Amino acid sequence: MAEAKKFSASDVLLHTTRDDCWLLIRGKVYDVTKFLDDHPGGEEVLLQASASGDATDAFETVGHSSSAETMMEGIGRWLCGTPYGR
Ligand code: HEM
């Protein structure tokens, strides 16, 4: 098992660019860098949500479908601070 890591909103703020973009949603950190091009809502909103520190409200406000939720779980992420394998 990889060593557990904990991330905070301020860690996410170090990853807010097209080349390196993380989102904090519902307490989990998602690396959406490779997803930016594929997001149906466009990359700009993801970059803005990333830069806001916590993207939970933005994600919820859109009223994403259940398939979006499933897609989110398939994206590289850190669950409760445990890094996924890249
Ligand atoms: C990893 C996180 C996310 C995933 C997997 C995701 C996925 C999707 C998917 C599949 C859609 C198509 C509609 C649907 O199925 O609901 C969508 C639409 C959209 N998303 Fe996201 N999304 C994510 C995060 C966000 C965030 C943080 C925002 C910030 C506001 C956002 C804004 C939008 C908008 C505005 C649309 C509507 C596009 C349109 O219909 O014109 N999404 N997203």
Automatic annotation (TrEMBL):
GO terms for cellular component: membrane. It comes from the Eukaryota. Pfam families: Cyt-b5. Residues 4-84 form the Cytochrome b5 heme-binding domain. GO terms for molecular function: heme binding; metal ion binding. Keywords: Heme, Iron, Metal-binding. SMART domains: Cyt-b5. Belongs to the cytochrome b5 family. This is Cytochrome b5.
